[in-house]
Design goal:
Layout: H1 20-38, H2 41-81, E1 84-90, E2 94-97, H3 99-105, H4 122-137, E3 146-147, E4 151-152, E5 169-177, E6 183-195, E7 201-210, H5 212-230, E8 234-239, E9 244-247, H6 249-259, H7 277-284, H8 294-299, H9 304-311, E10 317-325, E11 331-341, E12 350-357, H10 359-373, H11 383-400, E13 405-413, H12 416-442, E14 452-457, E15 460-467, H13 470-485, H14 526-529, E16 536-537, E17 543-544, E18 547-554, H15 561-577, E19 583-585, H16 588-610, E20 613-622, E21 628-639, E22 643-645, H17 659-680, E23 686-691, H18 693-696, H19 701-711, E24 720-724, H20 727-730, H21 733-745, E25 749-755, H22 762-767, E26 772-775, H23 777-782, H24 787-803, E27 806-810, H25 815-824, E28 828-830, H26 840-849
Parallel strand pairs: 18-19, 21-23, 23-24, 24-25, 25-26, 26-27, 27-28
Antiparallel strand pairs: 1-2, 1-7, 3-4, 5-6, 6-7, 8-9, 8-12, 10-11, 11-12, 13-15, 13-18, 14-15, 16-17, 20-21, 20-28, 21-22
Helix pairs in contact: 1-2, 17-19
Length: 862
């Protein structure tokens, strides 16, 4: 431990020497004896004064002894506080030691003065066991010493004794145990104060001082120095003006690499470059630390004033990147970190500059980024990078506005998998590199833009072309297909095609490379026309490939980048389906039509869920007697904005979707429930329900229908008529017959709706178990003015009689139509001339209050 602050040795007492009281007493006694002998009158006085003088002398002696003891205790306390322990021994006779020594090393044995070494660390004990006996015996070896930390010599850090080292002393650093079980460094100092005639020690003085604090400070200093010297990051100490004061080897090595000839970065004053490291130090010390000079910082885009403001605070800090050109012209990127060094009191006086060369790290990072953005085999951008470039091109197109179009294309090599299996992976990779090179050379460029090609994966490429019209895009893609069709020479390791091949970029007359938009594409040559398969060889043994291209155009196809790529893939799929080796564009209008249909179907679905759909019912009447025979369920939409809509306005949008079966099942359920309610209200009608072809072909149509009938046991199945279209039976007559037979098994009746408008033959009609035929309204409405329609209606009526089917005429609009139908033999009809479709309650009221007219053929009942 260190001495306490402000500690000083006690001041010496201002008193007479220890022999003065005794001399005074003897002198006074002698004087009194002489006076009593010479002058008898003084004899009595002497007898009284002598005892008093003796008592005073005794008291004074006691006072002196007490003062000496107090001073000794004070010295011992001060020595203990300073961490210093003292001992003195005369070998073989006596020992004296301070309490601190005894607490650290135990009592000393005069007979064995080295017994205390058992408390010392083993490493230190080995040295002391060798040197202490030599010191006590005397000799040349007693001149050796050691310093704290094991360094020999108290004044020489090299470990050798200084010339003025006393021969009878020994200094050594040793470790003693502490209470916590660790080791604490102490400094031992021994001095032989007296020797006998044979040179052996007769009196030894020893001191032991705690130097753990000094040892810790030295270790920290060594670590700081080692860190400064061996750190791979360049470190420099500067003043507040950034003048270089000191730097570590890494900084000097970096500066040497930057300023050695040919100079390029930081030394631009024309002076000759330094030839040695020492010359470099002499040149740079005291000058602005590089690259913190103002000119270099400004070239790197940094503001020196802003840096000064950031460092104005005592704990200021600034960091930035500086791009420099090293010796030989190689660019480097350096990271600079400048920090102020705080002072214990007062403003900062120094700053530390940390300099890191990030060049290799950034190069590795760029290489990794390139691996993630470019294809390893061809060096072309990959799909991710292609999408990024496409997004950038779309952004520019939106900012610039109309003026050019973007053609996004996907190119697939036809039969390349078979090519790979036939010729091996090495040949396939060679062909892929060659094809990528051809596409790159065939792209067009301009000062403000350039076309792009990428390898999307496998045997597929992506193209981004700038064009002015659809025709130009078609020509450009066909030209690129011609480039890919050129044969690949198997004997050429580079994969280059033979001179004179169509599309050869080296051919002056070749149209395979154009200078800008609008360049026309070359036409296929006779050599290309002779290609008979997708992976063939020509007469010279060269390999030939073909390609399929699907493309889309922006802004006609106004989607985002991913959407455009997906649409190009759709077009490519159509090329593959149509025979490959061609170019097709995505049909934007068809896509918009499909999207509109999907939106309409979704709106119908929402209407169904919101309860906006309902059923109206149109009566079927006996044209002769006027009796109400039945009704047909017709779907209506109570649109919130457009009012009541007929099915022709929304059903076509769901006919070919999955919703057709769901909607048909809902209509069946509603119709059965309404038939049940009417029966409870006294109205028993034959109810007809239309079944769409998609509904009829839906999985589990019959089981679901059977479940519906089971939930409505009060409705007889023979009072339900399923009306089918002719197209329902044309695709698969056998399957349709099985379904209709199952429906008949459930007790339902079957009708052929709109008969005569389809293409059903008599053989098909004969195979189906039908109960009714319904004459289409288009024939009935014109039968009075069109002889052919009249004859057609007459033929259908006769045909129904031959097949044993009931007949219902649709579109009865007037009494004349009813009379004509009765005359031909058709007695059942429906139409707006008889009754408009009505809601369920309105039809019930109409049926209950009406009375059939006496002459239905002359007056249509209302």
């Amino acid at each position: 431990m260190s001495a306490p602050a402000g500690w000083a040795p006690p001041a010496p007492s201002r008193r007479l020497p220890a022999v003065a009281p005794a001399a005074l007493l003897v002198g006074a006694t002698a004087l009194l004896l002489v006076a009593g002998a010479l002058w008898p009158a003084w004899r009595m006085v002497a007898w009284w004064l002598l005892p008093l003088l003796g008592l005073g002398a005794v008291l004074h002696a006691r006072s002196l002894r007490q003062r000496a003891l107090d001073e000794r205790r004070e010295w011992r306390a001060k020595i203990d506080e300073a961490g210093l322990s003292l001992a003195q021994w005369i070998p073989g006779e006596s020992v004296a030691m301070s309490p601190g020594w005894q607490s650290r090393l135990g009592p000393l044995n005069p007979a064995d003065p080295l017994a205390w070494l058992t408390q010392v660390h083993a490493v230190d004990r080995m040295t002391l066991e060798e040197r202490l006996p030599a010191l006590l015996r005397g000799g040349a070896t007693t001149a050796a010493g050691s310093r704290p930390g094991g360094k020999e010599g108290p004044d020489d850090p090299t470990g050798q004794a200084s010339p003025d080292t006393e021969p009878d002393t020994l200094h050594h650093a040793l470790r003693l145990p502490d209470e916590a079980g660790g080791w604490v460094w102490h400094e031992l100092r021994l001095r032989v104060a007296r020797r006998d005639p044979r040179g052996r020690a007769r009196q030894v003085l020893a001191s032991l001082q705690d130097i753990q604090w000094r040892r810790t400070a030295e270790e920290r200093q060594r670590m700081s120095s080692g860190l400064f010297q061996h750190l791979h990051e360049g470190l420099a100490i500067t003043d507040l003006e950034h003048r270089l004061l000191d730097a570590n080897p890494a900084y000097w090595a970096l500066m040497a690499a930057l300023v050695e000839p040919p100079a390029g970065l930081v030394i631009e004053n024309g002076d000759p470059a330094p030839e040695t490291a020492e010359a470099l130090r002499r040149r740079m010390l005291g000058h602005p630390a590089l690259p913190l000079d103002e000119a270099q910082l400004r070239r790197a885009g940094h503001d020196p004033e802003a840096i000064a403001d950031a460092l104005a605070d005592p704990a200021g800090h600034w960091q930035g990147l500086v791009k420099v050109r090293a010796a030989g012209g190689q660019p480097r990127t350096l990271r600079l970190t400048v920090s102020s060094i705080p002072e214990p009191d007062g403003p900062a006086r120094y700053r530390v500059l940390a300099l890191s060369d990030l060049t290799q790290e950034l190069q590795r990072q760029q290489a990794l980024e390139r691996l993630g953005r470019f294809d390893l085999l061809t060096g072309l951008p990959n799909e991710q990078e292609f999408l990024r470039r496409l997004q950038a091109a779309l952004q520019i197109s939106r900012q610039v506005g109309p003026g050019f179009m973007l053609c996004v294309a996907r190119v697939d090599l036809d039969g390349f998998a078979a090519f790979n299996r036939r010729h091996g992976v090495a040949r396939a990779d060679q062909a892929m590199r060659e094809l990528g090179r051809r596409l790159t050379l065939a792209l067009r460029q301009a000062p403000q833009w350039s076309d792009d090609v990428a390898r999307l994966g496998g045997d597929e490429f992506g193209l981004l072309l700038r064009v002015q019209s659809v025709e130009e895009a078609q020509q450009a893609l066909e030209r690129l297909v011609q480039v890919l069709r050129r044969p690949i020479d198997p004997d050429d390791e580079s994969g280059a095609s033979r001179p004179g091949d169509p599309g050869d970029p080296g051919d002056p007359g070749n149209p395979g490379h154009a200078d800008g938009p609008g360049t026309s594409a070359g036409t296929p040559t006779s050599a290309d026309a002779e290609i008979n398969d997708l992976d063939g060889e020509d007469a010279f043994g060269a390999l030939r490939l073909s390609a399929s291209v699907g493309a889309t155009l922006y802004p006609q196809d106004g989607g985002e980048a991913e959407t455009l790529m997906r649409h190009a893939a759709h077009a490519l799929y159509r090329v593959k389906r149509s025979g490959r080796d061609g170019v097709q564009f995505f049909d934007v209008e068809k896509r918009r039509s499909r999207e509109a249909q999907a939106q309409a179907a979704l709106r119908v679905q929402q209407a169904l869920e919101a309860g906006e759909l309902c059923l109206y019912y149109q009566p079927k009447l006996d044209l002769v007697g006027g009796a109400l025979l039945g009704a047909e369920a017709l779907l209506r939409w109570r649109h919130p904005q457009r009012g009541l809509l007929a099915p022709a306005t929304f059903l076509p949008t769901v006919e070919h979707s999955g919703m057709a079966a769901q909607l048909g099942h809902w209509v069946l359920e509603q119709a059965l429930e309404q038939a049940r309610l009417w029966r409870t209200q006294g109205l028993d009608l034959e109810l007809s329900v239309n079944i769409s072809p998609r509904h009829l072909a839906a999985p589990a149509f019959v089981p679901r229908l059977e479940a519906l009938l089971a939930r409505h046991p009060d409705v007889p199945p023979d009072r339900i008529v399923l009306e089918l279209l002719e197209s329902s039976a044309l695709d698969d007559v056998a399957h349709a017959r099985r379904l209709l037979t199952d429906c008949k098994r459930l007790g339902l009746r079957l009708a052929m709706d709109d008969f005569g408008t389809g293409y059903a033959t008599l053989s098909v009609l004969k195979q189906l178990p039908l109960d009714q035929l319904k004459i289409d309204r288009s024939f009935v409405q014109t039968m009075l003015v069109d002889a052919q329609d009249h004859a057609l209606v007459q033929g259908v009526i006769a045909l129904a009689g031959q097949f044993g089917c009931e007949l219902v005429a649709e579109g009865v609009e007037s009494p004349a139509h009813a009379q004509a139908l009765i005359a031909l033999g058709c007695h059942v009809g429906q139409g707006s001339g008889l009754c408009e479709p009505l809601p369920p309650q309105a039809l019930l009221d109409w049926a209950l209050r009406r009375t059939p007219p006496p002459s239905p053929a002359l007056k249509i009942p209302r």
